[in-house]
């Protein structure tokens, strides 16, 4: 019985592109077709083994991948090396390694990522840091994996708070167009120092003539730990509430702002329901009297350990 082939292995670079070996076709954009040997790919990937051996597929749609990345992936499976990876094709190569479960290539991609990350320091540019953060955000979005983000957080923690804060402020400067995954990443990066994100939120609201809560603003408000922010920096917390006081309040936003207020009141700032309601009316004068009905207030548990209301 022939010994089992262990990968990564060198199957011969000269076999790449050989017409007689190319029985699996990757279909890229604009009609580009790249052929490779299904056996070599299957030895590296249990997913490709299933697709070709058991499901008898002879072609795969890959129009969301660059040719450079597909070439790099195929070359890696043939040679056992990852020589052609670079900043431009890394994302797609890393994606292919994970989608097709090429475990050794996943590890090599992480090594490449870490090697880039290790070079960053307090003198690194915004663009340098942007590469690793965007790759981490993409991995969270496309693959629901946050291992790259954990590496980024550990690295930023070892540089400096000032470097971290400057990056986050630049990265989230256009809050309106920031995705939920970007916001999640920044919340994780700043940890308990939520004042960094509150400053961005205040600046975003200050720019609006007709103040309202857009999708990103609403999501950020839900994500920030305002209790810690209030405790650590009461002044910035007050500035946020001053801006929120001028927000045009829709029904959905009303319940959100109630929840935000809860984060203050639940810390024992108010002794009873009436004081909390009075505080809310001062904070949000644009909210209609109807919204402040007993029923709406009763739906928000301001005092978690009380059944008084």
Plain-language structure description:
- By secondary structure, the protein is mostly helical.
- It is 59% helix and 4% strand.
- It is built from 16 helices and 3 strands.
- It has helices at 38-44, 46-54, 67-79, 90-99, 103-118, 126-143, 147-159, 161-171, 180-190, 195-207, 215-223, 226-232, 234-244, 251-269, 273-283, 294-298; strands at residues 24-27, 33-36, 59-61.
- A 3-stranded mixed sheet has the order 2-1-3.
- Helix 5 (103-118) runs parallel beside helix 7 (147-159).
- The longest helix has 19 residues, at 251-269.
- The model is unreliable at 300-309 (pLDDT under 50).
List keywords for this structure.
three-stranded mixed beta sheet, mainly alpha, 16 helices, disordered C terminus, 309 residues
Contiguous runs where pLDDT drops below 50 for at least 5 residues: 300-309
The largest sheet has its strands arranged as 2-1-3
Helix content: 55-70%
Structural class: mainly alpha
Number of helices: 16
Beta-strand content bin: under 5%
Number of strands: 3
How do the helices and strands follow one another from N- to C-terminus? EEHHEHHHHHHHHHHHHHH
Bulk shape: elongated
Radius of gyration: 26 Å
Mean pLDDT: 86
Present the secondary structure layout.
Elements: E1 24-27, E2 33-36, H1 38-44, H2 46-54, E3 59-61, H3 67-79, H4 90-99, H5 103-118, H6 126-143, H7 147-159, H8 161-171, H9 180-190, H10 195-207, H11 215-223, H12 226-232, H13 234-244, H14 251-269, H15 273-283, H16 294-298
Parallel strand pairs: 1-3
Antiparallel strand pairs: 1-2
Helix pairs in contact: 1-2, 3-4, 4-5, 4-6, 5-7, 6-7, 9-11, 10-13, 12-13
């Amino acid at each position: 019985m022939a010994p089992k082939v262990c990968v990564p292995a060198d199957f011969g670079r000269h076999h790449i592109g050989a017409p007689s070996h190319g029985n699996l076709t990757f279909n890229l954009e604009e009609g580009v077709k790249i052929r490779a040997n299904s056996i070599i790919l299957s030895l590296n990937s249990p997913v490709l083994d299933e697709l070709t051996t058991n499901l008898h597929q002879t072609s795969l749609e890959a129009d969301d991948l660059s040719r450079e990345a597909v070439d790099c992936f195929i070359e890696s499976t043939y040679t056992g090396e990852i020589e052609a990876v670079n900043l431009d094709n890394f994302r797609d190569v890393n994606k292919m390694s994970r989608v097709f479960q090429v475990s050794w290539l996943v590890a090599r991609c992480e090594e490449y990522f870490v090697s880039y990350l290790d070079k960053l320091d307090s003198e690194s540019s915004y663009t340098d840091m942007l590469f690793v953060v965007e790759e981490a955000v993409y991995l969270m979005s496309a693959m629901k994996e946050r291992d790259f983000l954990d590496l980024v957080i550990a690295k930023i923690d070892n540089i400096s708070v000032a470097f971290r804060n400057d990056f986050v402020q630049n990265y989230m400067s256009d809050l309106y167009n920031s995705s939920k995954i970007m916001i999640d990443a920044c919340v994780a990066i700043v940890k308990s120092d939520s004042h960094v994100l509150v400053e961005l939120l205040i600046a975003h609201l200050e720019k609006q003539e007709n103040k309202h809560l857009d999708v990103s603003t609403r999501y950020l408000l839900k994500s920030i730990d305002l209790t810690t922010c209030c405790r650590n920096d009461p002044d910035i917390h007050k500035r946020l509430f001053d801006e929120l006081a001028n927000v045009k309040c829709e029904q959905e936003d009303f319940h959100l702002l109630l929840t935000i207020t809860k984060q203050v009141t639940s810390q024992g700032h108010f002794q009873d329901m009436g004081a909390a309601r009075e505080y809310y009316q001062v904070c949000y004068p644009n909210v209609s009297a109807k919204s402040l009905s007993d029923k709406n207030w009763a739906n928000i548990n301001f005092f978690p350990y009380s059944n008084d209301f």
